[in-house]
Amino acid sequence: MTETVHNWEDHGYLVTYIKKNGSFANLRIHPHGLVLVDLQSYNDDMKGREEVDQLLNKVEERMKELFHGNIKRVKRLPAILRGGVIDRYWPTADGRLVEYDIDEVVYDEDSPFQNIKILHSKQFGNILILSGDVNLAESDLAYTQAIMGSGKEDYSGKEVLILGGGDGGILYEIVKLKPKMVTMVEISFDKWPIIHINLSFLVIP
């Protein structure tokens, strides 16, 4: 293993370790006491991942010895698995990264407006992703039913107005309850391929 040490006087240290197989680790020591360890390795089997975990355990124990038990907190983040056949990581609108238990790509095509993906998750069912943005999943049905009143509201024979129907989930569920008429009003967004005007009205007699 090749070791390289960088010293920036008042800005701490950076140590890199590189193995012959291409795996490497970065050890960054900041002057205010923060120590970061980043390990990157190619392991396509469970045995390789267990070896990485064992290595990190040894590093953690050694760091505690070197600092004589003065470490206030140790935080180990889950490994990010890159290069898989199915991408399991998708960002949220507020910049967080979420890992889904994706096990199948149901659909993946480019329309004239956006990329459309339907991925299957063991936990959430089918998930719709438009141009990299997670839009909805089959598990959202409980949310839709809550908006509709969870069975407490009687829609039969009534005229219903849906403001901002979005994916059409509420519309799909409400027509099962035999309303007299449903009107859905939706603002146009560039990412939605089925809406091209400012307001779209859908009336079901």
Descriptors for this entry?
single chain, about 200 residues, alpha+beta, four-stranded antiparallel β-sheet, 13 strands, about 15% helix, disordered C terminus
Outline the structure in words:
With 205 residues, this protein is α+β, with helices and mostly antiparallel strands. The protein contains three helices and 13 strands.
Blueprint of the fold:
Elements lengths: L1 E6 L5 E6 L5 E6 L5 E6 L5 H21 L22 E3 L5 E3 L2 E9 L4 E7 L3 E6 L2 E5 L3 H7 L11 E5 L5 H6 L6 E7 L11 E6 L1
Parallel strand pairs: 11-12
Antiparallel strand pairs: 1-2, 2-3, 3-4, 5-6, 7-8, 8-9, 9-10, 12-13
Can you give me a brief rundown of this structure?
Helices cover 17% and strands 37% of the residues. It has 205 residues and is an alpha+beta fold.
Largest sheet: 4 strands, antiparallel
The secondary-structure class comes to alpha+beta
Distance between the termini: 74 Å
Q: List segments where confidence is low: pLDDT < 50 over at least 5 consecutive residues.
A: 192-205
N to C succession of SSEs: EEEEHEEEEEEHEHEE
Mean pLDDT: 82
